Amino acid sequence: xxxERALSCLLRSRPTxxxxxxxxxxxxxxxxxxxxxxxxxxxxxxxxxxxEKDNRAYVxxxxxxIREGYGTWPACFxxxxxxxxxxxxxxxPSDVLTLSEGGVPQRPTVFVNRPTLLTQVREKLRRLQxxxxxxxxxxMAGSGKSVLAAEAVRDHALITECFPDGVHWLSVGQCxxxxxxxxxxxxxxRLEQGxxxxxxxxxxGSVEEARERLRFLMLRRFPRCLLxxxxxxxxxxxxxxxxxxxxxxxTRHRDLTDSVSGLRYSVPVESGxxxxxxxxxxxxxxxxxxxxxxxxxxxxxxxxxxxxxxxxLIGALLRDFPDRWGYYLRQLQKKQFQRIRKSSSYDYEALxxxxxxxxxxxxxxxxxxxxxxxVLEKDVKVPAKVxxxxxxxxxxxxxxxxxxxxxxxxxxxxxxxxPYLYYLHDLxxxxxxxxxxxxLPVSLHGKVVCQYQRAYTEGPPTSxxxxxxYWYRFLPCHMARAGLSKxxxxxxxxxxxxxxxxxxxxxxxxxNDYVEYSAILDRENSEVRLQxxxxxxxxxxxxxxxxxxxxxxxxxxxPCCSEVYRQALLQAQRSASRGQLYLDxxxxxSLESLSRLVVHPQQSSVYHTCFSRDGSKIASCGASSxxxxxxxxxxxxxxxxQAHDDEILCCAFSPDDxxxxxxxxxxxxxxxxxxxxxxxxxxKEEYEEQVNHCQFTNHQRRILLATCSNDKIVNxxxxxxxxxxxxxxxFGHMEPVNHCCFSPDDAYLxxxxxxxxxxxxxxASANEWKTxxxxxxFPESDEETSITVKCSTWSADxxxxxxxxxxxxFVFDVATLGxxxxxxxxxxxxxxxxxxxxxxxxxxxxxxxxxxELWDFEVNKKMAECSxxxxxxxxxQFSPNGSLLLSCSDDQTIRxxxxxxxxxxxxxxxxxxxxxxxxxxxxxxxxxDSKNRLEVRSGAASTLLFExxxxxxxxxxxxxxxxxxxxxxGTDDGTVQVLETPSGxxxxxxxxxxxxxxxxxxxxNGQTLITSSEDATLRVWKWMxxxxxxxxxxxxxxxxxxxxxxxxxxxxxxxxxxxxxxxVWDLSSGEKLHDLKCHEAAIxxxxxxxGEHLFSTGxxxxxxxxxxxxxxxxxxxxxxxxACVRSCRFSWDDRRLATGDDNGEIRLWSxxxxxxxxxxxxxxxxxxxxxxxxxxxxxxxxxxxxxLVSTGGYIKWWSVQRxxxxxxxxxxxxxxxxxxxxxxxxxxxxxxxxxxxxxxxQVEGRL
Length: 1247
Known about the structure:
By secondary structure, this protein is of the alpha+beta class.
């Protein structure tokens, strides 16, 4: 009998459970567990009963609560669970919880055990106990593969011994790359629940990124879990899960796992049940013993060909009409429907008859409703609310209809999630599609769109539930299939749609929509389609962040001629009239996109792109198995070749540009005629794994092709196009080789491998020449995280070789193998590809964080960063003359950059040491550029007024005189110059400082110039006469100062230094009035109240202090920051002080008592491990003291009262040093670390 404590728990909870729980649903599970009989279930439903049950009944009841998703109820019973000893392979309560949390489907209500197959699957799974690998369960559609896979893991010993880290089920199905990403994102989300990983803050933005995320999770968090992939259709989907873990997969194709790594086992599932098992299913449906079934039962099984799906359909009908055996047999024998896929090996006719018979028992109204389900996509589960919209019925009515469909096996229900999700088997959907083919395009899909528009008259749904996800994923599809092109354009050319879908699903799906429906959208307006697509491409990383940035604010940075900008401005004006803050980047028209050409060659990832040797053509390849060739000038397509059976990993032009080589995951290498697009030669017999890379020699005198593969030993080969087999095999690497490249003179071949090394081979002899062990430069790595060398490239003179591993590029001397340079990129990124310019010392790096970087590898200096890609950049290639640079990405685009323009654009960018003058509504900016010239720009368009000659010493500080057209600059060598603008006349050259001048300032009358220096002194200049007063006393560099009482007859100067002191000077006499030891560490910031009663200091000792300007004593010590206090600013009413630190945190303090008022920070750190994208470097209050603006990695505006962010402006670059705000707090000026000038104006409200 049941344990007393378990029975007591049930009795205590009985009154509440009677109100909450549907007993009929739970009893279905308990019957399948064998603790209730069908008679007992009928008795419970008909009258009140009390049966004595044992502990298994309690456990079964508990498990049924979990399967039906009853929230907190299972937890109420968990502590009183009886301890059962698992017998006969049965699952324990903890196993059931593990399987439920992992998404494993529950056992069907009518379940027939298949012990022989179960034993085979479990025996193969046990072989994965100590090694990663694959167990494939394959068989025809409807043969019960999924049920078998789910049942196989209902084994306590198997889970505890082999898969103690859990079991995770993922239904994959036949899906495009974007849909595959959705499924992988959901798996990542499930695995990251309860983890504190920073990476879990946003979903992965590409299949490759998701694959790497899953690889990390499986390696570090769930090393001994089992991943079940249900219904895999193709090799591309499978490869996305080749992540070195233990996998059980169901599929219709036995050989899918041939191209993945690890152990491989398979279990065939016979196409049909034997007669005994099929009869057992029917007997369970009609609650009779198999031997008591009528004679027609055997003939029905024969007509069903033993298909579990078809037998279940007929069984569900017979449960409701047990006297119709003959009728349903005749229906199966009629053979009414003809299938399209005549060549299929599957027997669809039996299913047709079973489906038709099932539909005939529905009333006319429900039959029409069921017909509407033919608009669903395969492997898509929908909530009842979507069908409530489609059918215009109350949700409760819809649930009743769906329950009827489920009871008749016409529909499946996923009970692992609440609300329940409903779906059709592929064969059922095929049946409906064929039956309603004439009505599908216009009538049925059109009905979906019409019903959606009727339900959402106020705009798209925004709740974020499963219903919303369905509409955002499939509404464009329904519009396209219904031929509603104008409605589709109206939807997708709407910033509201973009904003809402990005919030729910990120940008990758949006871009896929614009590509997939481009033919329809371009008929309406191709320019607008490209504008939206470009907006998404450029802002992809931001649109993947959680929480989602303000899309309207992002769109305001688009060109003024863009439809995206037009809609954003209108929305911003309406929102501004309600008090919301938006900023318009008014000088953005002066900046052109650095991408010369953007090509969207295919609707899938682009893995490789290359120039022809004359630079006139571009070739690209990727996941679509298609090779494409374009003109490099216009992007016009010249060739499109269906080149391989699988994704193409690399392509390369021959030295004479007559041929192009491709290599693929299908293990083949092909040579094509570029002009005609015809196949010249194919090499297919010598590799057993995918071929990763191919490259021709550089010269025509002896044309060879080099290739490398994932094979363990025979992985690098040289080919002569005129021979049917390889000319040489280069032995040396024992692990896969990722990349190979010839030296400039073709004498050597460099190979990069997963074994952590680069090898140099002599081409003539095919012998190994030298080896570089790159892995030794990562001493912190271990065996679990081996070093993979992605690629290598030769310098133009062949004297150096550069290789990429993780986030680093290493430069080695070929002669000595000594490392010359180590170029490290962001720690959060990996180098996917590298190439050295053939005409200069530039090195291009393709990075996983969506950018291309240009480095000068002679001096280890980053020269430019090319932003624009949405996702991982896989490849970069220079043109033969080095003037152009190609990049390709997972975002399905190729970008063409002008090397000199990108390089020059960064080289002449403005420096962040700048000054701004606001005067009568005009803005004047003075700044140095990176060619060390002084620039003066004016107006909203930042028109260049003046540009000086290049200075001999680097300009480090600038200032504008408010009294006339005069500017000053300070340099690294201590020189100070005063210039007239716009003539450029040098009015004064002031010598005295011996080191860098960090800060300079004109007094109000413009006759005095004050400077501070690295030499620990300040100087007060009467610059017109050259008279100078030196203020000495600081022991370390003086970074900045503040003028007190500038308009009084006895002004004072407040200076602070790295020596931790503040000194007060009489400006007229130069006398030191006060010397305050404020901090033990360097003082990094300071400010004075507008009323000049208090001053503040922020220090590297993580504290800020407030001092009296009359007693010169400390008023408050403000502690609490966990990093250097780098900025501080008083409010205009002297009542508050804002301080910002290097963690990105801002604190607001009361100047009445020094109390902390608010902490301004977002909830989580960003990708820079900061709350503000970096250090908080500057702060300003609005004149009414209600708003605070701050700079760090970007610009943020805060509500002073609430401490909440009002708006964020994300600059192209980062690491902002300061921001200038106009007196009315409506114009803001800053410069980012890429040298881009931003003049931002607050958007005015408009009704």
